[in-house]
């Protein structure tokens, strides 16, 4: 009974994370008017790091460089590379393209986890669900137009992002097995992510530009990304991965386009079409099939 309660908690944490992450495309797209991708990334995770430091300041100890390397790699993949690639992709291609492409992360997670995690072997049912969910995700992205506007550079970057996220998810599963404090572990991952981010600040012409923070909208969106989508969501996601495993948790990423579309309708007054409704149904059905245990 206790185990089942823990599993239910894992599902709720994953769902909460996705509900928030599904709206981040809108905030990022708005901030790109005044900030560069690397500036958004740096300010976002700097806010997240200090919030986690205030909540839990105790250092966590690793017993070997091999264990420390897990945190270093997770910071590089899950913070620096993933979000930098995704944010740059948003400059070159449509948000809907990025939303569709990054949503195939569960597929890459299943493949990588199959080879690097003993307890997480993929099964046929997962791939059936993946294909159904992918059909729904594409339908949402196309929105019934049946004409995908391809932007090679942006779309290729968007395709690389879920591969990097899949590696991060597997790394976090390994970190969860170390039995370290979740907040402390997440904070250390953020630290290495920010460390790897420093060289990119010079490469991408980083500007402090404090005058931009006079805009309430900019401050609000950065706080949302820093407090909600970074500090809170990385905690809930990492905890969910520790409970459910990398593959089961990653299935929730299928729902991101559904949340993004719903948020766009509420915030940007975009229309809900038959394609979106059908795509939502297929996405949720595929997610359910992938999540179910094989007989």
TrEMBL record:
Segments crossing the lipid bilayer: 12-32, 38-57, 69-92, 98-117, 126-150, 156-177, 189-210, 216-237, 249-266, 272-290
The keyword Cell membrane appears for this protein: yes
Membrane topology term: Multi-pass membrane protein
Keyword Transmembrane on entry: yes
Domain EamA, first and last residues per copy: 9-141, 153-289
Subcellular location: Cell membrane
Source organism: Paenibacillus odorifer
Similarity annotation: Belongs to the EamA transporter family.
Record key words, sorted: Cell membrane, Membrane, Transmembrane, Transmembrane helix
Record protein name field: EamA family transporter
């Amino acid at each position: 009974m206790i185990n089942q309660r823990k599993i239910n908690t894992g599902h709720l944490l994953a769902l909460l994370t996705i509900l928030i992450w599904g709206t981040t495309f809108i905030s990022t797209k708005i901030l790109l008017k005044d900030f560069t991708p690397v500036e958004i990334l740096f300010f976002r995770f700097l806010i997240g790091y200090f919030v986690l430091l205030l909540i839990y300041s105790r250092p966590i100890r690793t017993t070997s460089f091999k264990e420390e390397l897990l945190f270093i790699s997770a910071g590089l993949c899950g913070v620096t590379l993933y979000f930098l690639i995704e944010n740059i992709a948003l400059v070159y291609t449509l948000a809907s393209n990025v939303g569709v492409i990054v949503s195939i992360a569960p597929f890459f997670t299943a493949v990588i986890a199959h080879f690097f995690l003993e307890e997480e072997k993929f099964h046929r049912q997962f791939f059936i669900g993946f294909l159904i969910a992918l059909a729904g995700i594409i339908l949402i992205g196309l929105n019934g137009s049946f004409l995908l506007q391809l932007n090679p550079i942006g779309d290729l970057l968007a395709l690389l992002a879920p591969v990097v996220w899949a590696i991060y998810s597997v790394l976090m599963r390994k970190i969860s097995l170390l039995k370290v404090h979740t907040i402390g572990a997440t904070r250390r991952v953020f630290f290495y992510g920010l460390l790897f981010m420093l060289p990119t600040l010079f490469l991408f012409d980083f500007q402090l530009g404090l005058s931009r923070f006079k805009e309430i909208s900019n401050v609000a969106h950065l706080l949302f990304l820093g407090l909600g989508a970074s500090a809170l969501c990385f905690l809930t996601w990492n905890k969910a991965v520790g409970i459910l495993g990398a593959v089961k948790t990653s299935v929730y990423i299928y729902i991101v386009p559904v949340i993004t579309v719903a948020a766009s309708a509420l915030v940007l007054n975009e229309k809900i079409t038959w394609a979106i409704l059908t795509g939502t149904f297929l996405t949720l059905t595929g997610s359910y099939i992938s999540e179910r245990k094989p007989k």
